[in-house]
Amino acid sequence: MITGIIGAMEIEIAELKESMEDITQEEISSIIYYKGKIHGKDVVVAKSGVGKVHAAVCTQTMIIKYSPNLIINTGVAGSLNSKLDIADLVISDFVVEHDMDTSGLGDPLGLISGLDIIKIPVASHVIDKIKTAASFIKDTNTYIGTIATGDQFICSAEKKNHIVDNFDALCAEMEGAAIGHVCYLNHIDFCIVRAMSDKADGSAHMDFPSFVKVAAKKSTELIHNYLKSL
Description:
This protein is α/β, with parallel strands linked by helices.
């Protein structure tokens, strides 16, 4: 079994790369793929870059080149729910592209053309395994719910409320649903794991770099726990 792990930023995958053994690397389309083992399990790790296009290119290449059985997208996100605090974890049961909008043609907001669905589902057996891995992380609340993705850094209450009202999402980020979209097309299991780095309303602007470090550490710890369990 090969587990693919994608992070958008270096801080989201740096510790995972340092943990790898028997590591080799290959650059394809300006993205470097690191293949090796973590806790004796076969993995391929990549930094996609920020945004949906980078994430989609990275995911499709990883599937074609390395044939992973599961792709996990790890990283940070902005909370859309008051119950989520900094560094709390969200595990996706669905992902949605909140900036997908063909409503001018009479479609529901978020409908993905060609798939004819709004929310892309995550396999229940994958959710269960990731949830178990999260349960070993101390002093951290874990939630399961919809993760919203768009090519926007959400930093206003107005946009935050728009996403919550239309998609009932717990958090927002910029890659997860693109990864889920590609995996869905390829019939590959996936899951998005996000640790909260901010409140997505601009309130944590000055502390964001510090919060990202804390949040990234939490999501990385979850990945380690998951790989140990395999």
